[in-house]
Structure formats: structure tokens, C-alpha cells
Amino acid sequence: MAAPAALQRSVVAPAGRHTASLIFLHGSGDTGQGARTWIKQILNQDMAFQHIKVIYPTAPARPYTPMKGAFSTVWFDRYKISNDCPEHIESIDSMCRGLTDLINDEIKNGIAKDRILIGGFSMGGGMAMHLAYRFHQDLAGVFALSSFLNKDSAVYQALKRNESVLPELFQCHGTADELVLYSWGEETNKMLKSLGVSTSLHTFPNLNHELNRTEIEKLKTWIVKKLPVEAAKTNE
């Protein structure tokens, strides 16, 4: 099989020395540039750090079953938008390979794997959980904003067999979400916690399927906690 083409990406460079990287995966139908612009509108500036490169990749367009097979920039296909149906595992695993290439690009740039965070909004958060908890358990952490995993997710199956230390999960969800129900996010959090993941779930009353400033500020604080500034090495 031909190697997948490298994912297009929008990048916010660190202001200072690059010692860590953050990969933010957009929601279904969006783009990396779109997610970056959305966050920029909420914060009135880019989500930027002194030492962390922020990467917003774009999912390749593919037929998307919930849109009657129309092409959309989605990380994977779904049979329907529900937590109570099988996962489209073939498309999930295919994208895990493409995103692994993105992680490896950062490692080639000299960034240690435990200095890389991955997460995203909605489907992007779901994708990040598959990528980290099934294939890259040595990443620094995972964040999932308005996201969920299906009831019998391959993530849960993988963690039932797992014995290693797992990346921490930072989760946010609005109680008024009508697309990805709050209960789906809450159930995902409880399941992962029961399987040994250190999790937090930040609840936002009256927030629909969207992001807000308080949420992104909380996320930024968590990012810097997981990826602190490293002291420059003096013995290089």
C-alpha cells in the first residue's frame, strides 16, 4: 500500500527555544487553519507558547456516512453519530498511521515523545484518544473537548490488556451539547478512569457543541503543567 500523503498543517511557532510540541485535531468538516482561526477569535490571539510548537493538521477529505457519503474533512468515518454503534475501525486505524508520521516528524526534530501532547475538538478528541491509548502510550498527555468514544471502543479493549503507565486525559464538555451529548463524554471519562487512565472532566453549564474562553484558558494551564519550560542544558 502506498504511504499516505503527509497531512497539511497550520503551525504556530514557539516564541523561544522549541522543546515541546502540541498537536490539535479539528472537528469533522473543519480544517487545521479553521481550528486555529476559531481559537484565535476566542482568545483574540493565537494559542501560543514560549517553548511549545502548536500544530493544527487537516484531515484528508473522504466520504462520510452521516452526510450520506458526501466528502468531508473527517479523521475517520462513522456509521452514525451515536455512542451505541460499532466503530469504523478501518478508517480509524488508517488515520492513526498518518498521524503517527506527524508524531515521528516531531521526534526527528529532536522533541522527545514525552514532550508531545495530542488532543482535539469533537471527532478530533476521539481520534486523539485512539492514537494515544492504543498506539502511543508514552505521549505526555491527551485532551478531548466535546468528544466521546463508542460504548465498545477499541480503546477500551486495548486498555483492558494494558499494564503500562498511561497519558493523563484532560476532558471538557458542555452540558447543553446537542450533537455529542454530555452523558457520552461523561461515560467515556468514567470508562477510561476505570481502566487506569488519570482523568479530569471539566463541565461547562449551558455550553453547546463549541469552545469558550474559560475552557481554552484551562486547557492552556494544563498544557504548560504537562509540558513545562525546560531549563537550557549547560553541558551541551
Description of the molecule:
The protein has a seven-stranded mixed sheet with strand order 1-3-2-6-7-8-9, with helices on both faces. A two-stranded antiparallel sheet has the order 4-5. It has helices at 32-43, 89-108, 123-135, 154-160, 182-194, 213-226, and strands spanning 9-12, 20-25, 52-57, 61-64, 70-73, 116-121, 141-145, 168-174, 199-204. It is globular and about 50 Å long. Helix 2 crosses helix 3 (123-135) and helix 3 (123-135) packs parallel to helix 4 (154-160). The protein has six helices and nine strands. Helices cover 33% and strands 20% of the residues. The protein is α/β, with parallel strands linked by helices.
Query: Order of strands in the sheet with the most strands?
Result: 1-3-2-6-7-8-9
Question: Uncertain regions: pLDDT < 50 for 5+ in a row?
Answer: none
Fraction of helical residues: 25-40%
Total helical segments: 6
The N- to C-terminal Cα distance equals: 42 Å
Global shape: globular
